[in-house]
Amino acid sequence: MLGQQRIFSGIRPSGDLHIGNYLGAIKQWVKLQDDHEVVFGIMDEHAITTPHEPAALRENTLETAMLYLAAGLDPEKVILMVQSQVSAHTELAWILGTITPLGELERMTQFKEKSHTLGAKEGTMAGLLNYPILMAADILLYQADAVPVGEDQVQHVEFTRSIAERFNNRYGKTFTVPKAMLERESARIMSLDDPSKKMSKSGESERGYILLTDSPDAIREKIKAAVTDSGKEIKYDPKSKPAISNLLVIFSEFSGKPIAELEDTYAGKSYVEFKNDVTRAVIAGLAPLQQKFKELEKDNDSVLRILRDGSERAAAMAQKTLADVKEKIGFLT
Ligand code: ATP
Ligand code: LTN
Q: Of all atoms in ligand 2, which is nearest to the CA of residue 135?
């Protein structure tokens, strides 16, 4: 279709998904699938850049796929692929690595943070340094125009743009130069027990995040225990009221009500009353997804089939770009 934008995005299957992943990433993907050409990946090769258990990786890969499907991604409309099932990703990454200055990799925020935490324990591996090159390959192979991600990944998309431009300048127009695509408020959902940090599955405490698979009781407990700010007004002001603002964003996303309307409704009401209603909205908002997830869990085979089929379709698309790249850099064809 003329003018239809191509979208690529992915998530590492490094553990259960939380509502930060859902609101910051997956929910926008579901909206995009109706009027964009979309490829979504489960990035297992990225997952092994931090220590992992093989059995858990296999299980998480399948579970991530089930959560994508349960959240509303429709395999009739989108290509759902597994990174390690499409070898073009690592092939292109090797080639892009040869035009990437080392200094640019060393300056990446995610590398600095993760190598700092991991370095002390297990040492820093080259795969972690090269992570952004593989991510650039993921995006460029599909000639994506836009990459919907949370705020923490914007630097990697900027890096991808600069590699694409460098390659295009040197060898002639080969890659589409992609843009990051961000949701306004939900691009950065904060931790429930420390609203100065992003909600993260590798966060220290389980109380900081709500998993998509958490039971209503667990959700109730976590929101009840969530930190609040001093004062008692319920208003959106991330600077002076970071915890309440974060809860307002979550409430708004799950209830579909604008933040301004929620501020009016809760003017003069207590934090307790507010939290009870946030809890109700999150439980109700996740219920359909959890129901669908339970059904999919009973049918591993059909999920595996969807992934195999998606990876095959993705490989056919990726192959076109890879062949062009190989030809341009002088490999025998
Ligand atoms: P980790 O904490 O282990 O680094 P993560 O929870 O940040 O993992 P990723 O797999 O790195 O999850 O991210 C998947 C997608 O979810 C990315 O697009 C990322 O930007 C988005 N995302 C992650 N955390 C949040 C958050 N707190 N708010 C909004 N979006 C988020
Ligand atoms: N680094 C991303 C996951 C990821 C990705 C991608 C996202 C790997 N390859 C390509 C968008 C496009 C993260 O969310 N941690």
A: 9
